[in-house]
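worker-03 picked up job from queue 'complexes'. Input manifest follows; three sequence lines, order preserved.
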Amino acid sequence: MLAFTLRRLVVAFSVALTVSVIAFVLLHLSGDLATSIAGAEASPAQVAEVRHQYGLDRPLTVQYLDWLWRALHLDFGNSFYFRDSVVSLIATRMPVTLTLGAISLAISLIIAVPLGVLAAVFRGTIIDRLALTFCVLGQAIPTFCLGLGLIIIFAVNLRWLPVSGTAGWQNYVLPSVALGWYAVPAVMRLSRNGMLEVLSADYIRTARAKGLSPAAVVLKHALRNAIIPVVALAAVQFGFMLGGSIVVEAVFSMHGVGHLAWEAIARNDFPVVQAVVLILAAIYITLTFLADVINALLDPRMRVA
Amino acid sequence: MTDMAPTTAPTTAPSAETALDLPPPRRSPALALLRRGLRHGGLVAGGVILLLIVGLALAAPLVAPHDPYAQELSRRMVPPIWQAKGNWDYLLGTDKLGRDYLSRLLYGARISLLIGAVTVLISGVIGTTLGVCAGYFGGRVDAVLSYIVTTRLALPVVLVALASAALVGSSLQGVIIVLGLLLWDRFAVVTRSATQQIAGSDYIAAAKAIGCSTPRLILTEVLPNILNPLIVVATLEMAHAILLEAALSFLGLGVQPPLPSWGLMIAEGKQYMFFSPWVIAIPATALVFLVLAINLVGDGLRDVTAPENRN
Amino acid sequence: MALLEVRDLVIDIPTEAGVLHAVSGISFAVERGETLAIVGESGSGKSLTSLALMNLLPKRAQRRAARISFDGIDLQTISAGGMRKLRGNRMAMIFQEPMTSLNPAYTIGNQLMEALTCHRKVSQREARDRAVHLLEKVGITAADRRLSQYPHQLSGGLRQRVMIAMALMCGPDLIIADEPTTALDVTIQAQILHLLADLQKEFGMAVILITHDLGVVARVADTVGVMYAGRLVETGAARAVFKHPRHPYTRGLLDCIPVPGRTVPGMPLGAIRGQVPNLIGKLEGCAFRNRCDFAAPECAGAIPLAHPEPGHDVRCVRLPELEASA
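worker-03 finished. Artifact:
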C-alpha cells in the first residue's frame, strides 16, 4: 500500500511538473511579455527597461525555474488587464467555481448511480432501456444549450429561478444541473457496467446460494465492488467539471474562475490563463491521486499491491 | 433408489441417421454483422438521421433556398414558418442581419461535419500511433504513454482549447488543429488495451516466429484487429469534437463570423433568446440531432461488433 | 421417501441459433446421508442440473420438470422467499471456482457468519464461534486469525475449505458440490475429497457430487449417474457401474482412465472417437450413437430404459448385443 501510494505520488508530481512546463510555454507563446506588461504605448526603451526589470532577458530555463519557484509560493505575478495580482483574482473567484463543481457532482452522482444500478439489476427491462435512452439523449445535449434551455424555461417563462449571477443558492440550481448533466451519462454507464460485471461474478452466485435476499445481494455484495471504479470516475469528473465550468459560467454570467479565464483569454491576459490552467490541473492531479488511494482502501486486493 | 423414468416418446420419426453430425448453421461474418446491425434500432435510427444530415450538408448549395451570407436588413428576425408572422420565403426565419436561417443551418452542418471528420482524422492518427506502440511494445514505452495520457487528461480541455485557439488565431483551421491535437486520449487508451490483447495472442507469436518484421506485424495483424473499437471511438470522438467546436464558437473563440457555425449561431442569437427563443432553439436542435445520431451510430456499432455479443 | 427427487428435468436455453436443450428429461433421487455422483464431460449439462436444483440458473435458462421435491417440498411451486429459506440453510452448494466464489471486498469471517445469521437468529458471538469451529473442522489452522483475512490472502485450497465451511454453517441436509476440486492442484484435490467424505459421515448429510473425474467418483460415491449430452445414460450403485459398466459411453469413459486392477499395464488407454453433438434443435434417439461402435438403425428411435440388474438403469437399445460381445 505504501509502495503503491509512493508510486502514485511520483507520477502525480511529474505530471504536475509537465503541466507547469506547458503552462509556462503557453504564457510565452502568447506574445512578447515585456511589451504586454509595459503597455501598447510604451517606447522601445521602456519595453527594454521592463524586460530587464522582470528578468525577461534571462535564458528561458532560468526564467522557468524562477517562475516555478514563485508559482509554488502561489505567486503568479500580476494580471495585464485587471491590474491586480493573479492570486487574489483567482482566490476571490474560486469559491464560486468550487461550489458550482461540488453541487454539480452531487447532482450527477445522485441521478446517475442509482439509475445505473437499477438499469443493471433490471437489465433488459423497460427500466434499463429508459435509463440508456436517457443516457444517449443526455450525451447529445451540449452544456451551453442545456443552460440556455433551462434559463428560457425556468428563469424566463416560469420565473422560478434567477437568470444569472451568484447572489444566493437559487443562482446555483440551474448552472449545477447544466454542468452536472454532462457527467450523468458517463457515471451511469460505469455504474451500470460495473454492476453488470459484478452481478455475473461467481461470488454473487455464492451469496445467492447462501439464501441472502436479493436486496442484500445487491446492496451488500454487489454495490461495494461495483462502486469502486465510480469513485475514481467521480474524482475525474469533478476535475472535468471545474474545467468545463467555463461554459456554464459564461452562460449564467457567474463570476467564477472559468469566467475569469474566459475574459483573460479574450484579452490576451495570459498570466491569468496559465495560472488557472495550472491550478485546475493541480486540483485534478490531486483528486485523481486521492481517488487512487481511496480506491485502494476500498479494494482489499489492492492494499497489498 | 435411482429411477430413470422414460422421457416423452418422440413425436416424429428421426429423419436422417446423420442428424447428430449436422454442424450449426453458419453465416458469413459480414452478413451476420449486417443482419445484427439492421436489427439494432438505435444504429438504424442514428444511421438514417446521420445520412440525412450528411446528405443535406453535401447538397447545401443545391437545396439551400438563399445565400447563407446574403444580408437583407429590411427582413431581420423574421420568425420561422410555424409562428404567426412566418414567411414562406424563410422557412426557419432570418437572423439579426436578415440572413436566411435555413440556409445558414444547412451550411453550418458542413462546418460541424468537416470539423468532426478532420479532427478525428488528426487525433485518431496521433492516438492510435501512441496506443498501438504502447500496447505492442509494453514496458517502458507503455509507461511513457500512460504518463503522456495522464498529463493530457490533467489539462482542462475547454480552457486549453480556448487558450490555444486564441493563440493560433480563432479560425476554422485553428479550431481543427487545436481539437485534433487535444482529443487523442481516448484513441490512445482504447487502442492500447485492444493491442495488448492481440499482442499476447498466439497468432502474433506465430507471425513473429516465422520472422515477420514489427512494422509489418502492426500493419497486417494488429491494425485490422483493432479496427472495430477504433471505429467506435472515432464516431464518439467525432461527436465530442463537434460539441467542443460549438462550445468554442459559442464562447467567441472558435469559428469566426460570418461563417455559419451552429455554436456561433447560438451565440449570436443569445441576446434575442428571451423574446425569440427559436433563434437558439433551431441551431441547438440541429446540434443535438447531429450529436445524437453520431452517438447512436457509435453505440450501435459497439453493440454490434463487440466480441461478447458474438456467440 | 427420498430427500431429493427429480423427475424429467428439462433445461432449455434459447439462443440466436435456436433452443439449446442443455438437459433433456433426467430423473434421479438422493436418499438422506447418501452420495450421488453425477459424471459427465463439460457441456453434458451436469453443472446446470446442480444450479437448477438450487434455482440459481442463469435468467435465460428455462427449467421444467415433472417433479422436483426436497424433503417433500415441491421446489417448482415454492415461492422465491421460501426457496431462499432453503438455500444455504437446508441445501447448500460448493462451487467449482474457489478463487472467484468469495467476495473480495469482505473478510472470510464476515462471509462465513453471514451464511448463518441470514437464516438463524443468533448473536455475532455465536456465529463467530460456529465459523471458527467449522474452519477447524475443515482443517484450517489458526482459524481465529483467518476470520479477519480477505479471500485474496488465501490459497485456492484454503478458499475451497472456506467454501465448504460456509456450506456447513447452517448444518444442511444436502450439499451440492459442483466440481469442487477441478480448479485445485492434484494433491489438494485428494485432501478436499477426503474432507468432504469425512464431513458427510460426521454430519450425515446427503451429497450430490458433480464431476468429470471418474477417479473421484470411485472413491466417494454410493450411486453414480453418467450424463451425456443432457441425458442420464446410466445410473446405478457405484460399485456395480465400475465393475460392470453397461452403456457404451460409460465403458468408453472407464477405458480412458487408468484404474488399478482394470487397466492392463503397458496397454494404451482408450479414447472415444468423434465429438459431443450440438445440442441446439431437436435431438431424437440416442445422443451417443454417432460415436458408438455398436450403433444400429434402431438407435435413432425412442430409447426405453433397460434394467440389467436391480437398481441399475441403462438407456441403450443395444444392450443384449453389447452383453453378448463383452
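worker-03 released lock.
Residues 1-19 of chain B have pLDDT under 50 and may be disordered.
Residues 192 and 241 of chain B are 21 Å apart (CA to CA).
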